[in-house]
Amino acid sequence: MDDTRSKQMKLYQRVDRVFNELKAIGMGDDDPIPVEQLCNYDQYHYFGTDAIDEAIELLGITADSQVLEIGSGIGGPSRYLAHRQGCKVTALEIQPDVDATGRALTHRCGLDDWVDHRCGDMLDGIGSTGMYDVIVSWLAFLHIPDRDTLYRRCFESLRPGGQMLVEDYFERGTLSEREQLILARDIWCDRVPTMTDYRMELSDAGFENIALTDMTTSWLSFVMDRFQGFQAASERNRVVHGDAIVDGLHGFYEAVVNLFKDGNLGGIRFTVSKPK
User: Fold this and answer.
1) Range of the domain at 130
2) What is the structure's pLDDT at 15?
3) Assigned domain for 256 exists
4) Which of 10, 87, 216, 262 might form a disulfide with 65, Cβ 3.0–4.6 angstroms?
């Protein structure tokens, strides 16, 4: 992984800023953290725990499910799944500093026995062939242009009959050179598949029951609300985080809004299953 490239994406700079938020609400460095409280700060994807609740319902995740989250960030979705459903979750994250922050938070939530943090690249495999009932990922596949290898690794990791749910970007209209540059530079996204690409590549990997859902309208509303809310809280955020973090996130959130408003970038949720 090119760490320099990943850190050009301001969302992944200074991920320890979550600890600034915890201090701002009066928590000490070693205090236990209720998962419900941490969920306000540790969800990097759109619609937070509401999106995870939908995944639980769609996939039928229970306490008996073995779950793999790809691109787990600082562990928010993995912790929420483990806490809400009592299932075991493997949280796979490629960036060492992001992974380390996730481990620290999971420990403070008392979920070490439920969430297994691993730092690694899904393209290399995770040594758990046919182990998982469910794979989930929220806004992480966009960082991985080699979808053929990625889907093959996912297929290998699922048990027969296992399911996968992913939320990510798709090319809704022809992306301009400027949009492609912004995606590559600011979002760490070198390739945005079309809906047709998704269906063909998932089928080629061996998946069945392919369902593609266009999330663009609701995602545009979400990213606009996120940006406006961040702007409104600018003074407070500068006190908590400092100017560098706030300016970086402001630019990132604004870039995402503009990409969706231009109409060529879309949001997709897909579900697939491995044949029994």
Assistant:
1) 3-172+190-216+265-273
2) 80
3) no
4) 87
